[in-house]
Design brief:
15 strands; four-stranded parallel beta sheet; seven-stranded mixed beta sheet; 14 helices; 33% helix; TIM Barrel; alpha/beta; globular
Amino acid sequence: MAYRKFKADRLFDGDRFREGEILITDEKGKVEAIVPESEAGENTEQVAGILCPGLINSHCHLELSHLKNVIPPHTGLIDFLCSVVTKRGFARELIDAEIIRAEKEMEANGIVAVGDIGNTADTAAVKSSSRIRWQNFVEVLSFTDEKAVENFAHYKQVAEAMKESLKDSPVSHRTSLVPHAPYSISPDTFRMINEATSGQVISMHNQEHPAEDELYKTGGGEYLRFFKIFGMNKSPFPVTGKSSIRSVLPYFTNGQTIFLIHNTFMSEDDIIWANEYAANNGLKLVYCLCINANLYIENKVPPVDLLMKHQCDMVLGTDSYSSNWQLSIAKEMEAVKKYFPHIPDATLLQWATRNGAQAFGWNDQLGSFRKGISPGLVRLEADLSNSARLQMSNQ
């Protein structure tokens, strides 16, 4: 068997940096061993910068790729949402072409798995031949209990169409129904999603704006402008007097792994409460940072230090081209490092590799340089600013 041997300026194995060691793979990228340089022998390939396992993008909206450069930065979340739901009329050819281009960009950047949000099955054709592994989150939108059964049935059909389209894909994928956000899901819809997702990996946008908490505490706030687009003059949700996460997380009771997305305005008290609720009720919470999207929309960064203080499981995502300048996990790490320079590179790389693989349940195939798996090989610039997938003989 032919082997390839890689010596990097810094070798990261998914958990830690390995000083003075060499990664050995077969020609297709399956990991054989990490050995001391003195034992590696000849024909070692030099890799400038950092060599790490393939990157995990834990949150994206591939189907919105046609909105690149359409919505200007720093509008604030409410105006951003109004723009997303009202910008229609794009040609099918443009939408499909931008989905293809975005998938190729992520693959070239070394992204090997994606947690991808979709309200349609528009991305199925691209995913069916993609080398990226996809966790498809079919996002349910249903503001009222009166429409809950009808809306849930619609998105269930979307999920079934996605599964059917991907059943013969060369890479295994998963598809689950998920709630969009506390400001778009009625109580009965939450209950239906809970029943349909027992033991599954799901996601939910969480506390992207202070108005989300205000909506549940008082029934008022800026989201009322968003609801008017859908013909509603008041909040359709119950007033609980609590924050949004405290109001909706108790709907989940069936052992789900829940990716909480953004968390930009999540308080320390809510972090403590959510972690305690999950631990006491058989749930697993994963906190996904999409810092460049937060900067794009609100020009604000998430409470990273608080999440770390309370030992939250953390991963990274890009969000969509409607709210980011690129689809690059390297750029997400670079941005976190800029605003939180005290965070070690090894921690950022764990969020980008091992943590995502574990949270999605793919750690037996991705996220680390363990013998016998093919996680993808990625070269990063030393400052984490750019990444590229190394090409192997089967690629």
